[in-house]
Write a structure and sequence with these properties.
Blueprint lengths: L17 H10 L4 H37 L3 H25 L2 H23 L16 H28 L2 H29 L5 H26 L30 H8 L1 H11 L1 H23 L4 H29 L1 H30 L3 H25 L6 H29 L4 H36 L5 H4 L12 H9 L24 H5 L17 H7 L5
Helix pairs in contact: 2-5, 2-6, 2-7, 3-5, 3-14, 4-5, 4-7, 5-14, 6-11, 6-12, 6-13, 8-9, 8-14, 9-14, 9-15, 10-11, 10-13, 10-14, 10-15, 11-13, 12-13, 12-15
Subcellular location: Membrane
Membrane topology: Multi-pass membrane protein
Protein name: ADP,ATP carrier protein
Length: 556
């Protein structure tokens, strides 16, 4: 166990300084050694998100120049098919390779792909120098699909890895800091594109995106060398000895559709989907409402001057992005961890959907641009800085298969499906701003109210799972040790190996296990990499890095 700063009975112990006290107030008693681990993970996500937003800023201009601006909607449709196919490939790789090596495979693939595309964009014949747009020029299509698929797969892989290597108590302290790293990347990436696109050129900026992927791979490699990984991630999900391997060594339930199967089987997994994605329905509705009102406002302010109206509209959207990312960064850095630790996950889960209900009702009561602007800032900023870390923590009492396979389906297709549902509403009332606010707002309120109920259910279910030590999807995960079981003797480990919720996952018939005895040394938890769960009293601390790394050393 790690002692608290300034603790101990010796009279010569120095009291913590002002900075240490402020850090503890914001993030809890996070040991100094673990701070390095959190900073390392934040840096890894910084390269993923920063590279993605840099490339995303280039995505549409490249298609417009090479293929034609009118083909951007078709590129979106093609990218859906490509991403769908790559999800199957990704889930197959989960059955074949250890989880940390997927970063090398996926990151290496995209680093190589973006590097090749960068070189081709600089070519005078097939690249951007050839300004004759033609839909038969495949480079634009490949670039668009590569960026879209990268943003979907790599972020899901990163959070699945983090959720599997950090316990709940550590997550409450660390996830805000990790997301702050992502927010820095989301601000810096587009800023680099806006600042240097006219000086060093789009092709070289694309090369910086490839470099970001290579640096992400290097960060993960260094992380595994320095801190190690849990045994559950050092084995592939399928095959002999892997997750789902039965006594005969044959895979049990492993396969590319296993994540979808677990999603359909367990209400808890569907609840994670709801809290992760369904709020995007109302975000899509309010986002379109804001753009309709903004266009009308600037057209009225600059009558007959389409150029001035368009320029001010673009400046308005740029200001919206700056404010949203700024608030999200500030809250994730200074507020996320403190709020979750003070309120607890159960009450914090209720905060965001309740906020959604309030802002939608405010828009319906005062349907003005200023109101919708503030509503969208609130939803976007706090979805990044508050809802995202909470929904990631919900994966704590789940199996490795749920963390990786089900999560890939939820993250990659859930948000897209929710945006599509929101677009159905906006298309139905696109001819009238008044109807859009009235009926679209009504639909958004219904979704938000449903999410309040889901958040209440998921908070109660999470606490029940935390106390019992049950693992959602554990029956499918077979032989791998799970990451949420309370500390106990060897008999508890045997129960872990035997599976988790099984058919009891829907709520009834929970199998109760012994809770952690306050006098235990915690050696077993340290041997398992410090990723075991704890009771609701927060009795589990993060394992010291020096000890956990030695017990989790694997081939990188």
């Amino acid at each position: 166990m790690v002692g608290r700063a300034g603790g101990g009975g010796g009279g010569g112990a120095r009291p913590p300084g002002a900075l240490e006290r402020a850090f503890t107030q914001l993030y809890g008693d996070l040991p100094a050694a673990e701070r390095l681990r959190v900073a390392w993970l934040a840096g890894t996500l910084f390269f993923i998100i920063g590279g993605y937003w840099l490339l995303r800023s280039l995505k549409d201009p490249i298609v417009a120049t090479i293929v034609g601006v009118e083909y951007i909607p078709r590129c979106k449709m093609v990218s859906l098919v490509v991403v769908f196919a790559l999800v199957f490939v990704y889930n197959k790789l989960l059955d074949v390779f250890p989880k940390h090596r997927l970063f090398y495979i996926v990151g290496g693939f995209y680093a190589l792909a973006f590097g090749v595309i960068s070189a081709l964009l600089a070519d005078p014949v097939v690249g951007l120098a050839n300004t004759k747009a033609d839909p038969t020029r495949l480079l634009g299509w490949v670039s668009y699909c590569a960026i879209e698929s990268f943003g979907s797969i790599c972020v899901s892989l990163f959070w699945a890895f983090v959720n599997s290597t950090m316990n709940f108590e550590g997550a409450k302290s660390a996830y805000g800091l990790i997301i702050a790293g992502a927010q820095v990347g989301s601000i810096l990436g587009p800023s680099i594109a806006a600042t240097y696109a006219t000086t060093i050129g789009v092709a070289r900026l694309y090369g910086l995106g490839a470099l970001a992927m290579a640096l992400m791979v290097a960060m993960v490699w260094g992380y595994v060398r320095r801190f190690g990984v849990p045994a559950s991630l050092a084995k592939p999900a399928g095959g002999a000895g892997g997750a789902g391997a039965g006594a005969d060594g044959k895979g049990k339930g492993a396969g590319v559709l296993e994540g979808f199967h677990l999603f359909m089987r367990y209400a808890y997994v569907r609840g994670i989907f709801a809290l992760s994605c369904l709020f995007m329905v109302e975000v899509t509705i309010l986002d379109y409402t804001m753009k309709v009102l903004a266009k009308g406002t600037f057209d009225a302010r600059y009558p007959g001057d389409a150029t001035a109206s368009s320029q001010h509209f673009a400046a308005f959207m740029g200001f919206f992005g700056q404010v949203t990312n700024g608030i999200s960064f500030a809250f994730s850095l200074l507020g996320t961890s403190m709020v979750i630790r003070r309120l607890g996950l159960r009450r914090t889960l209720l905060a965001f959907p309740s906020l959604c209900v309030c802002v939608v009702l405010a828009v319906m009561a005062a349907p003005r641009l200023e109101t919708v602007f503030l509503a969208m800032i609130t939803l976007k900023a706090f979805s990044y800085s508050l809802n995202n870390p909470c929904k990631e923590m919900l994966y704590a009492p789940t199996s490795t298969a749920v963390k990786f396979k089900s999560k890939s389906w939820i993250d990659i297709f859930g948000a897209r499906g929710a945006k599509a549902a929101g677009s159905v509403v906006t298309n139905a009332f696109a001819d009238s701003a008044a109807h859009l606010v009235r009926y679209g707002g009504g639909a958004a309120v219904c979704v938000s109210a449903f999410l309040v109920w889901v958040a209440h259910y998921m908070g109660a279910r999470f606490e029940a799972l935390q106390e019992s030590g049950e693992i959602v999807g554990g029956a499918e995960d077979g032989a791998l040790p799970q990451t949420f079981a309370p500390l106990g003797d060897a008999s508890d480990d045997e129960d872990d190996d035997g599976g988790g919720l099984g058919s009891d996952a829907e709520g009834g018939g929970e199998r109760r296990r012994r809770r952690r005895d306050g006098g235990e040394s915690g050696d077993e938890d340290e041997e398992r990499g410090g990723v075991g769960g704890g009771g609701s009293d927060g009795g589990v601390e993060m394992t010291p890095v020096a000890e956990s790394a030695a017990s989790r050393r694997v081939d990188v």
